[in-house]
Amino acid sequence: MTKKIGLLLLLSIGNFFFSFSQIKKSITTNRISKNITIDAEFDENEWKNAAIASDFIMFEPDNGKAVDAKKKTEVRILYDDEAIYVAALLYDDEPSKIMKEITERDDFGTTDAFGIFINGYNDGQQDFRFFVTAAGGQLDCLATEQIGEDFSWNAIWSSKVKITSFGWAVEMKIPYAALRFSSESEQTWGLNFVREIKRERRIYTWTHVDSKIGAVIQQAGILEGIKNIKTPTRLFLIPYSSFYLNAGETQKTKGEFKGGLDVKYGINDAFTLDAILVPDFGQTKFDNVVLNLGPFEQQFNENRPFFTEGTDLFSKGDLLYSRRIGQTPDFNPVLSNDEYIEKYPSAISLLNAMKISGRNKDGLGIGFLNAVTEKTTASAINSNDNSTRAVTVSPLTNYNVTVFDQRFNQNSSVTFINTNVTRNGSFRDANVTGLLFDLNNKTNKYNVSGGLKSSSIHDVKNTNGISASLDLAETSGKFRYSIGGEYISKDFDNNDLGINFRTNYYSLYSNVNYRILNPNKVFNTFRISLGSYLEFYKPTNQVQSSNFNINLNSTNKKNHYFGGGINVNPFENYDYYEPRVENRYFVNPKNAGGYFYFSSNYNNKFAIDLNPYITHVLNENRYEAGINIRPRYRFNDQFSLVYSFDYFRQQNDIGFIDFENSDIIFARRDRNTYTNSLTSKFSISSVMNFNLSVRHYWSLAENNQISTLNSDGSLTPNSSYATNKNSNFSTWNLDLSYSWWFAPGSQMSVLYRNNAATFNRTINKNFESNFSNLFDNNLNHVVSISVRYFIDYNQAKKWVKKG
User: Fold this and answer.
1) What is the pTM of this model?
2) Contact of 589 with 619, CB cutoff 8 Å
3) Rounded to an integer, what is the distance from CA 146 to the centroid of its chain?
4) Which candidate, 352, 330, 335, places its Cα nearest to that of 398?
5) 217: Cα separation from own chain's centroid
6) If pLDDT is split at 50, 70 and 90, which confidence band does 746 have?
7) Cα Rg of the chain, angstroms
8) For residue range 360-387, what is the model confidence (pLDDT) as tens digits?
9) Which pairing describes strands 30-31 and 73-79: parallel, antiparallel, or unpaired?
10) What is the number of other CB atoms lying within 10 angstroms of the CB of residue 619?
């Protein structure tokens, strides 16, 4: 018995030791002096003498399984004073079945792909990842364990793909200007290669990435042999010119020219300055506006490239909601009783913006973002004599974010972040500071994260508030768990540059989940989780939100996705936000619901997503239910269509509609919402694409029973209130665009856009008439052409010398 125990102990220690001491793969590269032509031919002699990286290991779905010899991958690397060069042979015994849908940049689509992951400091902290698809498309991203992959980051590099009789080939040139590395004479980089065989839904990596371990970057291999290279001058200029032609039913056609300049400058080997002068965001994607009957504003996605590219540092602590910068004015000027403002400006002009970001070899990340918006006025009209005067609805404003993020032990970090909004004059100023931590043990098995944030608002009444959180988790293995809590004080307010809806509460939450790490006879992936959430209003300790849930997610052997869940709210919830009056609340009853989700394999030409869901208030004829259906069809590698239909029904929903004297008026209402959208793309090549995006949204809410909110959170019928507060809202958006990347980093885009919106209090349930009324004297048109040209300082020097 003692011998058995000793043997088991020895095996356990061996396994423990192996987890720390697994030998990493390495490859040594050679310096070259001759030019390499990026043509996927590999006919230069230098390739013949290059070391080969091979013996890939499956990452998904059967983690750790060796690659089939018929689908082996061989990769070679060379370098010179300007760039590294990558040649990959991707063998496939059925080359005719290689999937190669043509897509625009940073979109994998339905295609095989090859990628290289580079960590220039070999510190396990951040990868620069470059992917090439079998259709010749390019994708690139920054990757960290905390944030994941950020594909908004773009670099300038070259690649070429060729389908062959044995599979396909990739050749890449990645300039040093696209990377970050130390100034040491002898370089050692973290390195991994990845290959996805799309039709089999299999992903392979050069160095084995153990899925039982939460971290990927720390499991990279090693690239050696690069010596005596210099970090290049990273100065890029992107001048642009745009023309807009606007027309509408109620306005004359007018044209407008715009021009400006974006600047990217590498301050040193780690940090980069980005600046935009005279910004132009006229071609950004439209917002999916909805009929918002709730107490909180609608939150929109950020679509402006400057505020999405390389912003992982600024997202720390969820203190930055960049749509605040240049948002619709929200200051109400002081008006006399006989004055009114007929129309507020739709947005505030951004005068300029700049950011500095990066991370040095010691793991210190620094981020600095600053933006200035102009003073914005509206016309106040005197109803007696129709005279007007200018009133300020938004003053000259400076927005600032500063971040210091220190990583250590490859997988842990401590972060300081500060956001500040300073407005000219007597308008409100705001300052928010956060100290955050994200700590993992060496094997990435356990995680402790959280932080403390404080806000300071300088207004008519100065206020200070705090927010604190703590989370404990096991993050590896088949069984994983987490438990945590959060506290937000009454006066914590980060809404000047962030977004936060609920304050004055504390919460507790937990999650336990089980997953398979390798496929079994039925599933490729399978995960089931149990979760709980309890939120308490701090002054009274009443439950204001609660949820207990069980969720299942799985992928079967045919790579169809199935998911579902059950949610139960077993307590009455005291809603302190819906009444819109401090210390007043509405009591929401217990409810339960569930959902189901099915997504068929996108490898098939026809695929469909289906998602029905329902929540029922217990012991009442009150529920909300909906369904989303999204069929898609890929006609060929160039052309595809995706249609989406959403229907959402709320029966006997209860919510705020108005104030009457000192009373808070609620209504029991029926609401129906229909959303139809269509997206399509036609790709002539990976650098030339047409895209269509159409959305029609219609929502109507009919009030059936009016009530007065009582002080105990209950309702009393109100028969005297007679104001019509029904809602009928429709909106239409259409974007048709053409994009051509005519040179590396240089793009011409042409956009036609039309949009319309209507809102009234009349309930008309006829879809056809509502749809036609939407376009009556209400449709606006925009045609725009924009050209952006990328100038690399190093290339420009060569042009000058040749000249």
Assistant:
1) 0.90
2) yes
3) 14
4) 352
5) 20
6) very high
7) 29
8) 888 899 999 999 999 999 898 988 888 8
9) parallel
10) 9
